[in-house]
Amino acid sequence: MNVGKGRVLNQLRMLRTQHGLTQQEFASLVGATRQTIVAVEAEKYAPSLELAFRIARVLGVPFETVFQFKDEEVKPRL
Amino acid sequence: MTLTEKKAMASLLVSALIYSYLSVNLADAWTIPDQSAQHLWSTWIIVLGFGMMGEVSVGAWSAWQRKRGELEDDRDEAIIARAERLALVSGFCGINVLIWQILWQATFSHPIITTLDVQHLPTLFFVLMSILFLCHGVKQFFILLLSLLST
């Protein structure tokens, strides 16, 4: 199976607010800076695998509940 | 502002101050006059000393900040890596401009366009030092810019 380029999407903002955590509080729990959490939530930065697992663990949800991989649509050649 | 951004800002300010010292010490308006070898040596040693003192101070201050709970994480490392690549490219370009000047002067005895006098050692010294500062400045500048763009 070939997997092409894509984007890492996430539900971090929704899950974090459900837990009643501020970005600063959540950043402290996962061992990252507040700016990193801001960037991840805005999907401007795809976190490292380790940070992504730490995020899922702190939220107490499976990895794929937080992060999804969306394939880039490939336009067929004419 | 993250610790990485604060460090980049401090480092950029320190290098700007040291480069000002270098410029004032070597340049006269837009030209580099003749300098004695002793003057070049002392300038280089002083610049090196100030640079080391500045970077050690920034490093010590950031270690103190880390003890107080400030963090540097994966995103900071990714930004630093990208900024370092851009600094490398700028250094590569700077050296190639210098090489181009040498080739130009080797080819034509009186080049049509203005060139740096690379046969004049104080000028060559100043240009090479400027390229070093350029690389460092580009790195710190892009750390600040990329941090700003990714939040």
Task: Describe the fold and architecture.
The complex is a heterodimer of chains A (78) and B (151). With 78 residues, chain A is of the alpha+beta class. Chain A is built from 5 helices and 2 strands. Chain B is an all-alpha fold. Chain B has one domain (3-149). In chain B, 78% of the residues lie in helices and 0% in strands. Chain B is built from 4 helices and no strands. Chain B is flat. The chains are: A alpha+beta (78), B mainly alpha (151). Chain A: This is Transcriptional regulator. Chain A: InterPro entries: Cro/C1-type_HTH, Lambda_DNA-bd_dom_sf. Chain A: Keywords: DNA-binding. Chain A: Residues 12-66 form the HTH cro/C1-type domain.
In short:
The complex is a heterodimer of chains A (78) and B (151). By secondary structure, chain A is α+β, with helices and mostly antiparallel strands.
Number of domains of chain B: 1
Q: How can the largest sheet of chain A be summarized?
A: 2 strands, antiparallel
What is the total tally of β strands of chain B?
A: 0
CATH topology of chain A: 434 Repressor (Amino-terminal Domain)
Shape designation of chain A: elongated
Strand content of chain A: 5-15%
Count of helix runs of chain A: 5
Number of helices of chain B: 4
* Main sheet strand line-up of chain A: 1-2
Largest interface chains and counts: A-B, 15 and 13 residues
Q: What is the number of strand segments of chain A?
A: 2
Q: Whole-number radius of gyration of chain A?
A: 14 Å
Enumerate the spans of chain B where pLDDT stays under 50 for 5 or more consecutive residues: none
Query: Architecture of chain A, CATH level 2?
Result: Orthogonal Bundle
Quaternary arrangement of the chains shown? heterodimer
Q: Can you say what the CATH homologous superfamily of chain A is?
A: lambda repressor-like DNA-binding domains
Number of domain units of chain A: 1
